[in-house]
Amino acid sequence: MMKKRYLTAVIAALMCSPHALAQIEFNGFGSVRASYSDSDEGAPPLTYLDEGEVTFKGESLFALQARGELGEGLSATIQLFAEGRDDFDVEARWAYLSYQINDIHQVHIGKLANPIFHQSEYEKVGYAHNFSRLPTAVYSDFEFSTMEGISLNSQFSLADGDYTLDTKLSFGNWDGALFLSAVGGEVPLAFDQIISLNLTLSSDWWKVFAGIFGAEIQAEQFDQTVVLASVQPGIDLALAQGATANDVNNFINGLGWHEKDGLYWFSGFGIDYNNILLDAEYVSYGVDESSDSTNEGWYVALGYRFNEFVITVHAEEQTQEIDYSEGLSGVQSPILLATGQTFIEVLGQPEFDAVGITLRYDFHPNAAFKVDYISGDHTRLDIGDYSIMSAGIDVVF
């Protein structure tokens, strides 16, 4: 219902202005990609890929964006988005109003991009980067890549224009379903009171960036259907062996995610100097005082530009630092401790690393052909060593 209200409001704003038809600007982006993988076990970085088959659906997408200038600094934007993995069902991914306060500040309100990490806002725009897909150790295609809320974008010129500082302050909410590879499916989840801050300092050939966002997790159903269902046999055995009700409550509350704080942060840099490209980003995220061990991811990419070509090699890794203390600090029963430790280990099991090479060819002012090969190793025994190959075209229009 909330999505429909934002969509209706933005369309009404676009169409009801007396001169709207003359002031609406359209643009968009798309990717058509053939992908092949030798594993498809439903875990990053293999999600949406079919083992041993070439698929054009998993990584193909299109988006059309309309922006209407309503006058006196006010505008309305809507982005319609469709992915092959969802049978190209169209959704209103963005739908918001904008107001240009002055030359420095602009405010947006509605359904917005949630800037989780540095490139999250434009993660789907393949033409904007030199990978076939951004390294999945960092950019895991999070379901909460949008939110309903408000953001303030600001740009400051420093040192007589030698440096530029871009900031983005956001507040909002998100509710939906989150895919967890450890349980092999989606679970209902919501983020309340999202607060985020992104900073980018740049000059002619370099940039450094950092950001953080926190939210209160609403995960009552996750706690019931995943956490409690998984550990119930251990609880029954512990009670039979004399565990107290208070110890069991501490155990359940410690492992649960409901009304706990989620914290995400990132930092990195980018260099584009004499046709040499160097990029790196590190991220860390998790749910405090719960069974969710801290997730850490990073990538480093080195590229070289020659004429219309860019060749990029990169390494990436995603790990989870198993920590029993946060979720089990108040538990005394040895049986509950052993049960909780096993659950935390299973939830934090999926880890992977990879190296890859990508060739980009800008054969058209608005289109790039890319081909890549990635080889990696996954800690899940049913995945193990894996490889991904793809070729496709990214466009903007």
TrEMBL record:
Please report the name of this protein according to its UniProt entry.
Porin
Q: Check the record and name the SUPFAM superfamilies matching this protein.
A: Porins
Question: What InterPro entries would the database entry show?
Answer: Gram_neg_porin_domain
Recorded hits in Pfam families, A to Z, give: Porin_4
The source's superkingdom equals Bacteria
Q: Name one GO cellular component term.
A: membrane
What GO annotations for molecular function exist for this entry?
porin activity
UniProt entry tagged with the keyword Membrane: no
Organism in which the protein naturally occurs: Thalassotalea euphylliae
Show which residues constitute the signal peptide.
1-22
Which UniProt keywords are listed?
Signal
Q: What is the lineage of its organism?
A: Bacteria, Pseudomonadati, Pseudomonadota, Gammaproteobacteria, Alteromonadales
What range(s) does the Porin domain occupy? Answer: 9-373
